[in-house]
Design a protein that fits this description.
disordered N terminus, 6% helix, mainly beta
């Protein structure tokens, strides 16, 4: 009887996790030297090891001029200790995609050089005018940069009321931010993820065996996030306390969004540094309930909090339920939480992710289908927290990035060593953004590196799988369609699921277009879009290998 039960379980597992044969390698090529990009992130590193130095920075992929090509916005530091950004080597930089593999620096014309010691960036069209705006987080200054539609941006931070000022703490140390429409009113709201209470003037030195180092987060008290509600007139209202978000003090690093229980309202996950993670369930009445412990994502499988860094919140197993992937530091492993419907199951060990990540530290993360086989893979931008970790921990400070291939059977394989020679180069990686830079249907990656040029990883995977890239245009929903849930039906294959979001990884912002790898299918029988407005839109017999613009139809709400 026991043998029969075991065999039955194995058969059930095979049904849940269908096997597949690899279609070819996942390969990347770092083409930074051919792009014309000269930006070099500068964290103003000092012998004093100021805490902010090790934490930057993020990057955004977004189409600022609506030419159909993803442009790149790089975040940068400032001179320490005064956090002055007047030297051009500290400017944030915007590069326009020329469409031929090169980029042009348009920072000056666009007016987006930034202010203060910047950390991260979030892209979203908050006023529904058809042009994507930027919110830049930082230590001493946050900025909302309104896209004017003519190649320039205007700093509207004060007018909009989103300076990142806490009523008791003053200016918070903001690392990440994200745009989402939490009340489905058709306007993007803004959450700002804050880190710890730190002041460069009162900072105490830290050392390990008399060697100066960056302090542990345990040396500082945490800060709550700030939630801004979009009023629809260019201004925002701080609803942190009213919503319940501001009542939870963490040490926030990353933020990601998904409707994990399918109730039509977007929920939020926040990764915390050496503190339990937060999962904010949207109560559909303007408030959130923190359910991280209850739903099994607050701690790792050993019941411990980790040094949570980046996070992505997407369906890894094509069951229609978004799962969670979090990067951590060496010894933590990078938790992978599988959504079982009513709660999450930590599958880090049995998926193979624990073995691959136990000895590395990760920052930026992403759940993306890099080989277009219909199974989303995992990416992590890796590097030590300490730039002198060789001396302190006897571990390398610079690490190569990591890509884990989804085998389609509940397991992931570390294929980093086969992902191309330029992918093997170690560096002080931080934030990462994902998107199709050349519109060939393959997801590329831009990775920030400290005190060096960024990495522009073009996806050179040789497989011939088909794909779709959906550009959603909301009418009743927010213009970017953020929060829309998309299902793709292929003949004879399991359905595919994804959703529209730009908040991915660590302090970064990715392509808002929704990507699907279709495997061998040359068309989609159906595409079902559930918009935040409640409208369900169905497309039929959609040809593969195209970028398809889908405008929200005035169809009846479901």
């Amino acid at each position: 009887m026991r043998l029969i039960l075991i065999l039955a379980l194995l058969v059930a597992a095979a049904c849940l996790w269908p096997q597949r044969r690899p279609d070819g390698p996942i390969e990347f090529e770092n083409v930074i030297d051919r792009t014309g990009i000269t930006f070099m992130m500068n964290n103003s590193v000092t012998p004093e090891k100021h805490q902010v130095e090790t934490m930057i920075a993020g990057v955004a992929l977004f189409d600022y001029n609506n030419d159909g090509l993803l442009d790149i916005y790089f975040v940068n530091g400032a001179r320490l200790p005064d956090m002055d950004k007047s030297d051009p080597k500290f400017f944030n930089r915007l590069y326009r995609n020329n469409g031929d593999g090169t980029f042009t620096d348009v920072t000056g014309k666009a007016g987006v050089r930034g202010e203060g010691f910047s950390m991260g960036v979030a892209a979203g069209d908050y006023d529904n005018d058809g042009y994507v705006d930027l919110y830049v987080t930082g230590v001493n200054r946050n900025q909302l940069l309104h896209n004017n539609g003519d190649g320039t941006f205007t700093d509207v931070t004060e007018k909009a009321g989103v300076a990142g000022m806490h009523p008791k703490l003053g200016k918070t140390w903001a690392i990440s931010a994200g745009w989402f429409d939490y009340d489905n009113d058709g306007l993007l709201d803004l959450v700002v993820i804050n880190y710890v209470n730190w002041n460069i003037a009162t900072e105490k030195p830290c050392a390990v065996d008399r060697v100066r180092s960056y302090c542990s987060p345990d040396s500082y008290t945490g800060q709550p996030a700030i939630l801004y509600h979009n009023n629809g007139d260019g201004t925002f209202t701080d609803v942190s306390e009213r919503s319940g978000i501001g009542k939870h003090v963490g040490k926030g690093m990353g933020v990601a969004f998904a409707d994990y229980d399918g109730d039509g309202y977007t929920d939020m996950f926040v990764s915390n540094d050496t503190y339990r993670n937060f999962l904010f369930h949207n109560e559909r009445n303007g408030t959130f309930r923190e359910v991280g412990v209850l739903d099994g994502v607050a701690y790792n499988d050993a019941g411990k909090s980790i040094a949570g860094m980046g996070v992505d919140f997407r369906d890894i197993d094509n069951d229609g339920r978004p799962d969670i992937f979090v990067s951590g530091m060496t010894g933590d492993t990078f938790p992978l939480f599988r959504n079982l419907g009513r709660y999450f199951d930590d599958v880090t060990a049995r998926s193979g992710v624990a073995a691959a990540t136990a000895r590395v530290t990760g920052w930026g993360t992403g759940i993306m289908d890099f080989d277009n086989d219909g199974n989303k893979d995992l990416f992590a931008a890796c590097a030590s927290i300490l730039d002198n970790s060789e001396e302190i921990d006897h571990l390398p400070a610079k690490l190569p990035n990591m890509v884990l291939r989804n085998l389609g059977n509940g397991r992931f394989e570390n294929v980093s060593a086969q992902a191309g020679p330029t992918f093997q180069v170690p560096a002080a990686h931080r934030g990462a953004a994902f998107g199709d830079l050349n519109n060939d249907g393959k997801i590329d990656v831009v990775v920030m590196t400290q005190n060096a040029k960024p990495e522009i990883f073009m996806n050179r995977s040789p497989g011939r799988n088909h794909w779709l890239l959906l550009k959603l245009v909301g009418t009743r929903s927010n213009r970017d369609g953020l929060g829309a849930r998309v299902q793709v039906i292929r003949a004879g294959s399991v359905p595919l699921y994804n959703h529209a979001t730009t908040s991915v990884g660590y302090a970064s912002s990715s392509d808002k277009r929704v990507h699907f790898g279709l495997g061998t299918a040359d068309h989609a029988e159906k595409i079902i879009i559930d918009w935040p407005s409640g409208i369900r839109q169905v497309l039929t017999d959609v040809k593969a290998d195209q970028i398809l613009t889908v405008r929200e139809s005035p169809a009846q709400a479901k």
